[in-house]
Amino acid sequence: xxxxxxxxxxxxxxxxxxxxxxxxxxxxxxxxxxxxxxxxxxxxxxxxxxxxxxxxxxxxxxxxxxxxxxxxxxxxxxxxxxxxxxxxxxxxxxxxxxxxxxxxxxxxxxxxxxxxxxxxxxxxxxxxxxxxxxxxxxxxxxxxxxxxxxxxxxxxxxxxxxxxxxxxxxxxxxxxxxxxxxxxxxxxxxxxxxxxxxxxxxxxxxxxxxxxxxxxxxxxxxxxxxxxxxxxxxxxxxxxxxxxxxxxxxxxxxxxxxxxxxxxxxxxxxxxxxxxxxxxxxxxxxxxxxxxxxxxxxxxxxxxxxxxxxxxxxxxxxxxxxxxxxxxxxxxxxxxxxxxxxxxxxxxxxxxxxxxxxxxxxxxxxxxxxxxxxxxxxxxxxxxxxxxxxxxxxxxxx
Length: 398
Prior knowledge:
Elements: E1 4-7, E2 14-17, H1 25-43, H2 48-59, E3 63-70, E4 76-82, H3 86-96, E5 113-115, H4 116-119, H5 122-127, H6 129-135, E6 140-150, E7 154-163, H7 171-193, H8 204-209, E8 214-218, E9 224-227, H9 229-237, E10 241-244, E11 247-250, H10 253-267, H11 272-275, E12 279-283, E13 289-296, H12 301-304, E14 311-317, H13 325-333, H14 337-349, H15 352-359, H16 363-377, H17 382-391
Antiparallel strand pairs: 1-2, 3-4, 3-7, 5-6, 6-7, 8-9, 8-14, 10-11, 12-13, 13-14
């Protein structure tokens, strides 16, 4: 089989999209370079459209974007996109984002790849307004999406769209998404923490020192080459993080080993930092939980603030991370993603016609799924469903 070579005009990188899972030596080298570009985008948002285009080519698609979706209104915000005509982007935001199939994505684990068929029956998807009026005219057939971050009110995600030529999302597409997504997520998180759009390079150190979360820039051995004020306070407490012979160390030996492996990997530009996860849990002596996010900086702020830095460690107090009520409901009653979607929409917007309009599906389809929900939950009326969902509300939520 002759591989389909896709060459990025801006970079000259070649990606060989075939049915196999293994990458060529050239692809491996290009992936390392692409990861470095992704981190550059964290500090210069203007780079995102071009870099997204390269990511889309690597994954094997024709379009893609970084978006957030409000979990209640179901309206999406497109932050950066590539391969989508501006007109279609505009009508998506104004009209079709409320009836796209992405709402169930919030119930997937961070880093879990979801195709269209994972979110909604593909046959049902093809009958819906979103497909008929927005997807089909652009000759697209499927998408691979992954959650970057989520809260009770919204979630951020990254999507790559495929057309009829490249076909449905396959195992190779999913694997490539899993390879690149941790780095996209890390870049998004750091970009949100530090807005360098208005900060000159010479002011960067002052900007870092002004952060409320702890920041440590370290070399490959964990030696601290820059620590902001919040980080100094953390070290001063001598609790879950400490300074040992000039190196950043965790009090827990196993956590310390994980941190230092990440530092060493960052020095090599190794994707292992991403594939092993970007968050390292830290527990204080009083039981308070914190989390450290490790970010490779070989090509980014390490060059601007501290030349020897290969990684940044951002430390913050962990928020309550209990499973969201919808996730618990789905597990308890073994609801499919579509059934859960119908249940939540019924509760939030009202009756069958309103739910059908919101989801872009037929009234009869809503009724079918609603009947399944009644049978699985042992309820008979919509008011019973409202009570059921309310019963799963988090009692700690303010």
